[in-house]
Amino acid sequence: MVSLRSQCKKRTRIGLDVGGHAVRAVQLRRSGNVYTVSGSAQHERRPIGTDQDRPIGDIVRVCLQSSGCRGKLVETALSSPDLEVHAIKLPPAVSGGRRDELDEIVHWEVQRLTTLPSGSVETRHWLLPETRGSAPNALGVAAAREVITQSIEACAAAGFTCSGVDAAAAALSRFGSLLNPWPSDAVWGILDLGLRETRTILCVDGVPVLVRTTGPGGEAWTAQIAEALEISVKAAEVQKRDAGLALTGRGVRAEGVATPAGELAAILTGVLRNDLQTLAGEVKRSYEYVLSCYPRRRAADLVLVGGGAVTKNLAEYLAQALGIPVCPASAWLSRDGCRLRFASGRQSRIEELALAVGVAIES
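The structure assignment produced for this chain is given below.
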């Protein structure tokens, strides 16, 4: 969890995302406050529908060597279930004290809250923007030393040096801050639709103030579709991405006969309805909780990242359910105020590279 931070240079370190489905690497060039993706790559850990991973060191090496990234310094990140996040309320006298004393106090508090075995945990924390009343004023994170060591060793086996292991929520908040100059009164969020879990990260002043798991990941959705349609997992993944979800007033001809695509989308929506409704409800409650802690703020956009973010009509479905703007990260790239660019010939699906981009940015 410790990062060896250096002065920001024109070319960033390499951000590495070792996900459940794929390994992704990104390097950026910085010019003023604008970042340009100068190198990137993505390699699957295993084919969809199989359980056999290739050695992670081999995948990391192939990914990094094919990315066009320069240098040997990389940083990676952890997210749940490998990383636990705990909200903490520190007394004013403690939160304003010496850094070493604060680190020790938070460490013991996170140790008390974590489900990880005592004595084998690394902890870190960040302070939150000023809140009211008894609301938490810090988030503490915990990860098993064994998991951190595995990340460092995977980089070493690939011939690279891992300078640190970040919290995914912190990295994604840096990514989201590149997409838009968020107003000071906004509570904006990132919905990370990963393979194993879906995670909600809500930010105030660019700081993650809430990080929680809000539903199953894309793997579970694909499995449900495969079972319901009696097709392979690989085919179900294609249908999930391409047919997507049915929306009110969509996929219907003038005479009221649904198109084939509309029929399939309606079926997929029915299969996933419980998960979708639960997800929307959990995200809504997350916003409501943060707004109760920051009553002078307003609910702003939700940005979709991760492999599941490209599911057709998912953003529109969530926007209807939540009553706030929702869109995949790529929708921001052409908007005024976005500080993220792609070098010529390197345009990629930014939703899947989001975490690696955030890791590459030095805080």
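Interim note for the steering committee: Confidence is low (pLDDT under 50) at residues 1-8, 249-259. The radius of gyration is 21 Å.
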